[in-house]
Amino acid sequence: MSFRLFRISWVIARYRLDTLLPLDRLPWWLRFLLWFSPLRLMPIGQRSRGERLRIALETLGPIFIKFGQMLSTRRDLLPEDIADELKRLQDQVPPFPGEQAVTRVEKELEMSLSDAFAFFDPSPLASASIAQVHVAELHSGEDVVVKIIRPGIDRIMRQDMALMYQVAKLLTMVPEARRLRPVEVIRDYEATLFDELDLYKEAANTSQLKRNFKDSPLLFVPTIYWPFTRRHVMVQERIRGVPVADIHTLKANGTNLKKLAERGVEIFFTQVFRDNFFHADMHPGNIFVNCDNPEDPQYIAIDCGIVGSLTREDQDYLARNLLAFFHQDYYEVAALHIESGWVGENTRANEFAAAIRTVCEPILEKPLKDISFGQVLLGLFQTARRFNMEVQPQLVLLQKTLLNIEGLGRQLYPDLDLWSTAKPFLEQWMKERAGVGGLWRSLKRQAPELSHQLPELPVLAHQALHRMEHEHRQRQQQTSAISNMQQQMARQGKRQHRLRIGLVIVGLALAWQPLSQWAGSQQWPVLVAAAIGLLLLVWQ
Fold this sequence. Notes:
Blueprint (H helix, E strand, L loop, with lengths): L1 H13 L13 H8 L13 H12 L1 H11 L7 H7 L11 H12 L3 H4 L2 E2 L5 E2 L3 E7 L5 E7 L3 H19 L3 H4 L3 H14 L3 H14 L6 E2 L12 E5 L4 E2 L3 H6 L4 H19 L2 E2 L7 E4 L7 E4 L5 E2 L3 H15 L3 H11 L8 H16 L8 H12 L8 H20 L5 H17 L1 H18 L3 H63 L4 H15 L2
Parallel strand pairs: 5-10
Antiparallel strand pairs: 1-3, 2-3, 3-4, 4-6, 7-9, 8-11, 9-10
């Protein structure tokens, strides 16, 4: 671990990544440390800043490459030269040798390459952070691609994840960072990242996504060839399309970029709300466009290693939150956050709503096409610090995917209005979910369970009545016991009261005797009083 940390520090120093920091925005003490840092003694070299960043991420391995891929989709947040370099991380990562690829395929399939394929190209078609792809042809004549996991990649990833856990645990010592729940976020990221190492899971995800969009004009998903798919090798139908980031070719083909961008938003919301199964790694390297009909372009999705889903409750809260934002109903947003448990239940909705309004109103007053959802999220997170809002790990993948979609859409069509594109879809979804149709679908979904339980209803009803009678008897017994206890306490109180009176009378009688002797009167009143007192004492 210490060696890995040393290597990361060395790569940062070697490529002078400190020069990418905005010094004017840093605290004075950090600027002071950087100014007198030994890093300044190392030469920057002739490479551009974007190239230095890209090579550093490639050197550090798959987790850092994934981070660069995510950044590459947000050209609105990055300088153009850095975004252009990071775009190369999507499918131009340095490949591993073709001989290793052949050896791994034969080992996984337990057959020779010639027995499996009529043709196999040892030179990769594309190379990414975790795997690379080779062109091949089956003996049955289908053109396919073979995806192969990089050898030894799991060991490097485990080292990096262990380091990230250590950093996350250190962050939990800072109250401001604890709200972000770094350990839970890293754990969720780890699960999704290591899922990519199992190509059986990716193949299953691809098949599910293909079923969800069967015969859809919006999205095409390639076929998986299961007989040739293993844990570290996957064979799927070869697709032919234009990379979605190749704007020049798309324009040259006369592609309707406005429709293409809007369809990207529609696909995302369809996956999240209709299917509750969404492709969560939608960077441009995984998306192509079928331009056979330029006015009706169709997306092609590959690399379904990372997918996400939400609970029905989170689906509902998310949709209602987005609609509340569309209508600028900040009180509803605040109430939903409290109701869902995303902020503390003691939070005052009116105060939270006022804080959200202060941050979001200047943003939402702009024309809708100029609003970045990323800016809205950032404003929300900043506001939530005052109300101890915690990051929801189950929503991290969704937020990342939505930011990717927005970045891609604005790259295709800068005037994309994500808000107005999504609003009708969400309103229709909520209407269907809350209406008669939604109720009928819910009944159909629960019909197998209900039909299984229906013959058992008389027994269940008898058991329920028996439990009710048993509970009723228990309550009666408890009530009787409490009543007896109260009566005993009342009698005990009366006895204590008579004891006190008896003691007082006896005391007065004893005190009266000397006084009566001094006065020379008769003593019979004293004897009577003493007798009454003794009777009260005896009657307990």
